[in-house]
Amino acid sequence: MEEINAAKRRKLDHADDGPAFEAASSSASAMGASGASAFILETEELLKEVKFDYSKTSAGVEDILRQLKDIIEAAEPHEPLPIGETTAKFEKSNRITIPYPDPKPAKDSPYKLSFEPPAQINVVGSWILKTNVKSQQDLAVDMIVDMPASIFQEKDYLNMRYFYKRSYYLAYITSALRQALGASTEFVFDHLHGNQLLPILVARPKDTPDKNGDSNNANAQRKSKPAIRIIPCIPENYFPTGRLSAVSNAIRQSKSEKDTEDSKVPTPFYNTTLKAESQYSSYLKLLYKAANSCAAFRDACVLGRIWLQQRGFSSKICDGGFGHFEWAVLMALLLQGGGRKGEAVLSPSLHSTQLFKATLQYLVTANLQKKIVIIGKDAPNQETLRQSMPVLHDSARGINVLYKMTPWSIALLTEQARWSLSAINDSPLDQFDPLFIIKADQPLQMFDVLLSVHIPASREGIESVDRRGFISDFSAKLYQTLKRALGERAQLVHINLPDRAAWPISSTGSKSERRTLLVGVVIDPLKASQGRDYGPPYEQKKESAKFREFWGDKADLWQFPDGNIVESLDWTEFSYLGFSGICEGIIRYILKFRLQLGDGDLEFYWKEIPKIMSLTPSDKVAFDGARQAFEIFERDVRDLEDLPLHVKQIAPICSDLRRTSLNIPEFNFRKPLLQPMEVVVSFEVSGKWPENLAAIQRAKIAFLLKIGSSLEEVKEEIKTHIGLENATRDDENLAFLDVIYENGASFRLRVHSDLEESLLDRQTKDKTVERHIRTEAADLLSSYKRMYTNLPLHNQTISTFCTRFPALSPSIRLTKHWFDSHKLSCHFSEELIELFVLQAFLIPYPWDTPCSAMTGFMRTLQLLSRWDWRDEPLVVDSADSLSTSQRLEIGTRLRAWRKIDPNMNRTVMFVATSHDVSGIAYTAHGPSKVVATRMTSLARSACKAVKDKGVDLNIRSLFQPALRDYDVLLHLSPKVLKSVTRDDATRRSQYANLNEQHVGKAALPLVEPPARTLLKRLNATYSSPLLFFHGAPDDNIIAGLWNPLIHKRTFTVHMPCSLRSSGEKGSSEGELFEVNRNAILAEIARIGGDVIERIEVKEG
Asked: Which of 47, 353, 585, 944 is most deeply buried (CB count within 10 A of its CB)?
């Protein structure tokens, strides 16, 4: 299915330097035909699934609405009475607290309150437009009650007089409704979209058991029925709009000097709230007109609602102030105008997905953070619209559509739209999930720095006259301070405001559930770690004075070598903590200096990370040192002149030299590396290599011996040792050369021969030999390609991206620690784990590329929890070179593997890269289906904890292994393990002559850690009855699960393991045998010897 009625590409802009914009049909064409049609099919399926079924509830809702309307219209009117007397009498007689906004009216206020039946009652909003979805948390029907103009006066727009009368009108309606429906309906007060000036009445059916007495079923039915929100409003254009511009003041309370100053302060939020009170019907007409002129309008509204919902946005002020209503209004306005010459930005012939993408692109290109955007004819002077809030001015109605938004919420909305467009353009085969399925408002997965700020009790110097509320005013000041203080370090600063719950009609008002603000910062990894900031030049006196006034005593002067003097800030005292420590130091200082917030008022999250593992800037120095040592080694080998062949390449293949090893490669002459850094040397093409695999291995040994002797001869500080890694086969790589420098650096060198690959390839295809020989040759070829082809390319790729993405290296190390903690790393190669993390960086949607280790780690867990490895390949296109057809071929190859091996006994995970599309290069030797399933379940549990607990999550809990899940625990002796791995130069023998022989000689590097050696032995012997789990090389516990597939059986010749008689008879009267667990564990204890301290067996 192709996109229908694709609109002609057009460039659009506002007449007054408005947004440059191209219609989204160009985005659709950029996806390609198959990508675009697949996206459309998925969205159409989504729309079918999420649309609310009005047929089941419409009749009941209409009856309730009609009943409410009749009661309200029948309410008894009364004459104007003084506000103090009326309030006291009403609250006492009705036991309903009038929900006056703060500040509440004084008892002696000269205002009068009255009630008359409403001019009209209408239903507005999503219910009438049919754009609700099933997943809405706040499903409600909005019923507006037009208060009659006769109860107001011309100047009621001043000093909250209108809002006081509105609150009384609402309470009076509530009294009539409760008297008539109190037995069956629950009434509570709430604020409309969190606006404290606008209390509303929410009516819900009470919990009553159904006919069968099932209260749970009744509750479910109650939740499926929408609430009714009763919203009083003013007649259209009742108040003069000229008095309610963004630069006007409508709060004037007395003639004191302070209030005279306040009367000059604009009140844009108050004014726009008042103007919006008269525009409900007008906007309903606008949306109806758009829905009738554009067939796809309603579907595009639903897509917009889901997109916003998944990002935590709604019309509530605490949720950003941009929800379904604002999205629908924006689209409706763009269908009428918004172009450079007033023409429509959107075409009514566009498909819903095109309308959706076009609206996203408009949000990105309009630059609403900095520009005043006007849509419509007869645009007013921009100076009359200027305010701290973002401005999208609807000229026809004179309303700033974004008046509930804040500078930080519009910044986040713009970034979210930009990230979503990137997902559409960069990921042609998977655009749908990042846009509509993945929940993108998780602070732990989005922000690099998270802190909570205690809301102060004192309001002095913070609360404004604009009546946004103290918390909003304090948040605005906090945002301005942090944004200026962090400067270029922060790409995004966001503040999550606390929500206010609904409150009983007899209560005095709503209270916030928490007294803290959650602040999230997305950092710039290239600038966040700078230890010194520079301000204006000293000669610019005015700017320098402002700089010093903002920073106080922290500001000092800095002179460059060329003599220039500038203002500066020194944060080097926090440099050892990395960007998080520097940002924390800046935030603590500036908030204490500017807002008088002490250390007790701030709580920074993720303080437990150093307790989990060390991630400091000094790690980079250690990796740089390892790289420099490798460069010296490479130069030393290349300078050898007596080698039979010239060196073509020396390639690193270890994690130390690609900055991803869990333990940083620290070494010195007293503490050399225990595990050498592995490298591969390739020589020029030559016909002198023997055409026999066994002979090639011996030729490699000769090369290694020659390199070792030549290095020792040229440089005295170098010691070399030849080592054997395979003593069972003569056609596999037999030896390596350990090269140890006096400074502690050590390298493990292997020789690469091109001829070996062609011989193995020939042998795998030779059908004249027996099948098992071809199978062995195929295994050898796979090992050869991994060692000499894939690992060098992998090393190069990861090294490149660790340089491009500063957060990649610590993210990989933290993810490896997670695999180690859950004892999975023995089943996953290091390279496979690195590819998981790299994929989270290459395709980070619905977010941007991670900028810290924690966000990189969290998003990797998200990737693992969502990846269905049974049916989906993981394609890591690091070179951005795979075409759509190649990706489809990879998927076809996976399906072929699943047909050949449906039980996934051989290949479980299918991971393809730019340089290896086979999909099995990294997973040929694991993990098994059981281990892969456990990885997925652990990742899903972690993501669920992140979602449910949010910032209250104890990060350390993600790394705690569930040892109770295992059947057997082998506790290894730390003392014995250390005695094997420690520096043997300090160990003395009981024989004096041996001590003299070994004076000054250090222990040889280990072939592998002793725990891994034991694990390999156990796997080789007992892989059938037991599945072993082990973490890092220094992990002191090897866990095991008994294989449930080895059930009781009769005796045969080829038993899978040690069995014993169960004492039971089988169906054929033969004796049944079961796994002899005690004997196997006893044999394991014998094999482990002193290394195994004790064996713990799970009971039952």
From this structure: 353
